[in-house]
Amino acid sequence: LDVRVASPRPNTIDPVVVITEEAALTARPKEDFRVEPLVAEGAVVAQGAPVLASRRNPAFRVTAPMPARVAAIRLGPGHRLSSVLFFHEPGAGRHRHDTAAAGRADDPGALRDLLLGAGLWRALRSRPFGRVPLPGEAPAAIFVMGLDTRPHAPAPRVAVAGQEEALARGLASLTRLTAGPVFLCQDRGAPLVEPHALPDRVRVVTLPRTHPHGLAGPAIH
């Protein structure tokens, strides 16, 4: 599809970091995410510090999106996550996770533990139904979407610029979570990562910039 949008396309600019005065962690509609708070209302937390733990899988943590004071914790029946509201506290600092063990290629479980503890596991989605995978699941393959074809969506390559080495290191690390391939899906422009910097099981797939090729489902099919 070539989606026509009446408003003009914004100019491509260098990405900027904007810290809002308020932020919240929420559950997606129909998501049965039951949690145990690790902090109390009024606590000051560093950015990246664990604030919630899954009741079903305690190693699965959710972290603070910014240095903040915990303004409100709202849970539904059965400790289902409704929302956690944060007020920005510039002096609260940034939490550092121990990444040393996860860098060892002979211990893939350490990488999984780091993703779970650092709040990054919740960014993963499994097929079908787009749910967050269980901590012990091993995928047949992993798709990393390096393009976004939604109308006026920011180009991922703008965010990747200058971070190519880190992206290559991350893609290589993802091969430790699956025995299958890791696909990097990108547009037909210049490579997001030079192929020689990637291991054999990381495959680069080029897709058209028309919608919906930037969605994981069509890419998988």
Please give the radius of gyration in angstroms: 19 Å
> In this structure, how is the largest beta sheet organized?
4 strands, antiparallel
Strand order of the largest sheet: 1-7-6-3
Please provide the ordered H/E string of secondary-structure elements.
EEEEEEEHEHHEEH
Strand content: 15-25%
Helical segment count = 4
Give the proportion of residues in helices.
10-25%
Structural class comes to alpha+beta
The low-confidence runs, each spanning 5 or more residues with pLDDT under 50, are none
Mean pLDDT: 91
Explain what this protein looks like in three dimensions.
- There is one protein chain.
- This protein has 221 residues and is α+β, with helices and mostly antiparallel strands.
- Helices cover 14% and strands 22% of the residues.
- The chain is built from 4 helices and 10 strands; from the N terminus they run βββββββαβααββα.
- The protein has helices at residues 108-117, 156-160, 164-174, 216-220, and strands at 22-26, 35-37, 44-45, 50-54, 61-63, 68-75, 81-88, 142-145, 182-186, 202-206.
- The strands form 3 sheets. Strands 1-7-6-3 form a 4-stranded antiparallel β-sheet, with no helix packed on it.
- The longest helix has 11 residues, at 164-174.
- The protein is globular and about 50 Å long.
